Amino acid sequence: MREKGRTEEDIAAAFFTSVNVVKQRLRLASVSPALLDVYAEDGMSLDQLMAFTVTADHARQEQVWQAISGSWQKEPYQIRRMLTEKTVRASDRRVVFVGLDVYEAAGGTVLHDLFQFDDGVGWRMSLCSTAWSPRS
User: Fold this and answer.
1) What's the pTM value of the predicted model, to 2 decimals?
2) Which of 58, 43, 50 is nearest to 23 (CA)?
3) At how many degrees (to 10) do helices 76-83 and 58-68 cross?
4) Residue 103 CB-density burial (10 A; 0-12 exposed, 13-18 middle, 19+ buried)
5) Distance (Å, whole) CA 105 – CA 85
6) CA angle, corner 7, sides to 56 and 106, nearest 5?
7) Closest to 125 in 3D by CA, of 134, 115, 96, 114
8) Residue 18: which H helix or E strand, with range?
9) Strand, helix or coil for residue 89
C-alpha cells in the first residue's frame, strides 16, 4: 500500500489500527535485508531487531550486528547505544537551549526511535552537524 502512494493514515484506517503501529511496522521493514534474514532464521529477537530501527544506515546496522553477534552482550539497549554513540539525548541541555526547530532548520539530523522514548520525546540529535550554534 505504501508503494502505491497510500499515506500511513490511510494504511492505518484500512487495517483498523493506529498510525503509530503502521509507522513501527514500516520502520521494521526498512531494516537491513541481511538483518531481516537473521531475524527470520531466529538469529535475533524482535526486541533486538527493533533496536536497529534507530538508524536507516544499513551498513552501520550490519557492522554493529557483526560486532555483537558473537558476544554475550546483545541487549537492545547495547545495540541502540552503539548506533547512537555520536548523538545526544533530547534532554541534553544543548538540545533544550538550541531547540528542535532551530536545529533542523540549520540542517541538523534528528533520529526518531519509534520503539524507545527518550524523556517522552523519542529523538536524538547528531553531534556531527554544524547546527550546534547558539540562537541569534
Assistant:
1) 0.70
2) 50
3) 130
4) buried
5) 23
6) 50
7) 96
8) none
9) strand
Cα(76)–Cα(46) distance, rounded to whole angstroms? 9
Q: Which residues contact 98 (CB under 8 A, 6 or more apart)?
A: 131, 132, 133, 134, 135
Query: Over the stretch 90-135, which tens digit does the pLDDT of each residue have?
Result: 777 877 788 878 877 887 777 767 676 554 444 555 544 444 444 4
CA distance 84 to 97: 21
Buried b / exposed e across 75-89, counting CB within 10 Å, b at 16+? ebebbbebbbeebbe
| 108, three cell numbers | 541538523
How is residue 92 annotated by DSSP?
S
Q: How far apart are CA 2 and CA 85, in angstroms?
A: 31
Cell 508503494, residue located = 3
Distance CA 35, CA 65 (A): 8
Find, among 45, 52, 15, the residue nearest to 30 by Cα: 52
**Domain boundaries in the chain?**
86-136
Q: Is the pLDDT of residue 78 over 50?
A: yes
